Amino acid sequence: MANLQFKTLAVLAVVGSALSAPQYSTQNQQLRARQYNQPAPISPAAPAPVAPLAPRQASGEAFARILKNDQETQFDGNFNYAYETENGISGQAQGILKNPGTQDEAQVITGSYSYTAPDGTPVRINFIADEGGFRAEGDAIPTPPPIPVEIARALDYIRSLPPQPQQPQYQ
C-alpha cells in the first residue's frame, strides 16, 4: 500500500512540475514581442535595455494613443461612431436600418476615414454601404484607365443591335 502511495505521489510530482514549467522560452518571448512591436520581457539572465523604446512616428507606426472614441449603438440597428488618434488617423460612420420589418429592409452605412500617407499626403475616403453594395470615393482610390476608342466604338455598336430572341433553356 505504501508503495502505491509513493508511486502516486511521484507521478503527481512529475505532472505538477511539467505544468508549472514556462510555456515559452525567453527567446520565444522576445521573438513574439518583436512581431508585435512591443518591448520584450526582461528575464533575470537577460541584459537590461539601454534606453526605453520611443514612440514610433508617422511611417510604420504601431502604437498611437486614442484621443477620441465615441460609440452609440441602438437595438433597432442604428449606430454611430467616431474615433481619432494622436497620429492623425480619424474616422466616423453612421448606420441606419432602412425599411425595418419589411421585405426591403436594409442596413445603410455612411462614413469617412482619414490619415496621412507615408509620403505626407493627407488622405480622406468617404464611403457608403447599402443594398447597392460598398462605394468609396477619394483621391487615394485608384481609377481605371479610360476605355480605348476602338473598344468604346465596339460597345456602342453592340448596344445599337436589335435584341436577339431568347433561346429556350433546356435542363
UniProtKB/TrEMBL annotation:
It comes from the Eukaryota. The keyword Heme does not apply. Pfam families: Chitin_bind_4. Keywords: Cuticle, Signal. The keyword Signal applies. GO terms for cellular component: chitin-based extracellular matrix. GO terms for molecular function: structural constituent of chitin-based larval cuticle. Residues 1-20 form the signal peptide. InterPro entries: CHIT_BIND_RR_consensus (IPR031311), Cuticle_Struct_Prot (IPR050468), Insect_cuticle (IPR000618). This is Uncharacterized protein. It comes from Nezara viridula.
